[in-house]
């Protein structure tokens, strides 16, 4: 029965390794998605800032005339 016990332990170890790898992969994907969302939020905020600045500069130019 030693052979069967070894085979079961090996199969369990392989299964655990596969599960760990899967969890690591899903964590990395989630991290990358979070990073991409943060980058998109920054770009949106920068675009809004530039838009407000341009609008304010235009208004200021109108006031000066």
Strand content: under 5%
Nearest-integer average pLDDT: 93
Q: Structural class from helices and strands?
A: mainly alpha
* Fraction of residues in H or I helices: over 70%
* C-alpha end-to-end distance: 96 Å
**SS summary, helix count:** 1
Shape: rod-shaped
Region (Disordered): 1-65
What does this structure look like?
This protein is mainly alpha-helical and 65 residues long. It has one helix and no strands. The chain has one helix at 2-64. The longest helix has 63 residues, at 2-64. The radius of gyration is 28 Å and the shape is rod-shaped. The model has no long low-confidence stretch (mean pLDDT 93). Residues 1-65 are annotated as: Disordered.
Overview in brief:
With 65 residues, this protein is mainly α.
Q: Topology of this structure?
A:
Blueprint: H1 2-64
List keywords for this structure.
0% strand, mainly alpha, 65 residues, single chain
């Amino acid at each position: 029965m030693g052979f069967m016990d070894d085979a079961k332990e090996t199969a369990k170890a392989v299964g655990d390794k596969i599960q760990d790898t899967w969890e690591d992969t899903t964590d990395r994907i989630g991290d990358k998605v979070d990073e991409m969302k943060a980058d998109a939020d920054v770009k949106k905020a920068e675009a809004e800032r530039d838009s407000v600045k341009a609008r304010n500069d235009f208004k200021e130019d109108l006031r000066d005339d």
